[in-house]
Amino acid sequence: MPKEPSKLGKRAPKGVLRRLMRTVFQFYPVLMPVTLACILVNAVVSSVPAIFMQNVIAVVEETFRSGDWASASGRIFSLLAVLIALYLISLLAGVLFTQLMAVITQGTLAKMRKKMFEHMQDLPIKYFDTHNHGDIMSFYTNDIDTLRQMISQSLPQLLMSAVTLLSVFGIMLYYSVWLTLVVVCGVIVMTLIAKYVGGRSSRYFLKQQITIARTEGFMEEMMNGQKVVKVFCHEKGVKEDFDKVNDELYENSEKANRYANILMPLLANVGNVMYVVVALVGGSLLLSGASNLSFSGLALSISIVVPFLNMTKQFAGAIGQVSNQVNMVVMGLAGAHRVFELLDEEPEADDGYVTLVNARQKEDGSLEECSERTNIWAWKHPHHDGTVTYTRLRGDVRFYDVDFEYEPGKTVLHNVTLYAKPGQKVAFVGSTGAGKTTITNLINRFYDIADGKIRYDDININKIKKADLRRSLGVVLQDTNLFTGTVMENIRYGNLEADDEECVAAAQLAGADDFIRRLPEGYDTMLTGNGSNLSQGQRQLLAIARAAVADPPVMILDEATSSIDTHTEAIVQRGMDALMAGRTTFVIAHRLSTVQNADAIMVLDHGRIIERGSHDDLIKLKGCLLYTSDAADDLLCVDL
Q: Residue 353 in contact with residue 465, Cβ under 8 Å?
């Protein structure tokens, strides 16, 4: 059962921002400090005009009293020259940091996607069985996009606003403590408003983030099941289900943006009120001749009040920018938290140390490892005393009293004991849910057993590295997956070292060569959308060819011919018989023609093997198996 996304409204835990910034610095240890320095320069210079304005007004005020305008112009122009120089530096710093941030942002996202994808390849099959595929896709689209907005826009803006606030606040205290206290009172009001409105907005932005993932999961599910929806005329029910998901997304998004959209106008108006109050207090202090308390020691004058008014607007604007970016940061942190949750998922455990190697036989009959391909494979088994033994890969698979459960307390397989000697064909039959596919999943070690033992060529499979174990197995599943690429590339997927001749030979063995050559470009025909331009039967034939080119000693066929018509099956069966010759084969099927020539047939019921034997042996056990030959489809029916 797929897991639901994280709890709605759950805030990202502490430390996510710190971890994200640490990750960005690891990706760009040189560019990040340079970018931060440029941002600081740009922010500090934006606070400087207030000082120059005060100096210019002071010069004008002094000159107005003395009347010496000729000397004033030189002083004013020198101040303007310095200001222009600082603005040019700020411009260069601004251009540089915006260009660097574009590189850092897109590079970070690319590296994060790569890191996520590489980690995802190491996750166990259980993770994909228990998580909605649409939600997993949302990691790479929606969550990564929120990181883009936060890294490229929100964090630089927050840093600039923070530096501006500190710079302007320091300048305010330098010129007048009294007027600064008035601004502080206004800031307290703005902070309370931002906390009340922004807090609600943030909560709904988090809910929006998670319901987007849920919506994407629903859409992915519906697209995959569209034919089923049509067949059962379930369009109305699907629309109702979509309306529920869509309405939930609408409600969360509407509330999030409603609060976010009223925050800036509220703060802007409070800033305007604060501007008026500062002007009134400043004017009153000037008219009353009150003494000024400041770090500069300057007397309160028009040259201080006027720049102070501009600083008040600048201060209020910086607070508004911070409040405006908080929601984007909250969304970004929610996305970062989900990304880190994926990266923190435990990778597939593998304590194996036995590996599969190319080998050649020496004159005395023993095996030794070699680098070239010899078509002789051996298990390389290192021992604690430093010695190494080589065991020829034969395909001998044995289960000893195996118990297994997907979830604690819900046992799926009970005391399963079976063996498949090299070259034997073992078939599993039984009702749906009896445990047939589970057994093959255990051979692959997609899941590990709860109790008992599985031995492969007399080696406990827990000692074999999973990658090497799976290299020795060929699997053809009922659900065929073809990848975007040519027919030849899809066949070669089974063995990347195979040349074109080997791929063609595998296709001929599977009975796929005939229809491939009738395709527009033959083996170079491009496949897209999981082979949507092929029939289900043709796709299955390619899957069988892909397994054939791997040339493994053990084959697992899970309903491999279920999607092929009886005429095509006759062709495929001949190829499969050739493919299975000399190989240990595990077959799950419901067709009599597929299992009747098996060396042993295992009848499963609720995770237990209730009967075993050949086709002829089981036919004699009346009441256990009922074979019904139907001229049309020749089906095997299990009556349990």
A: yes
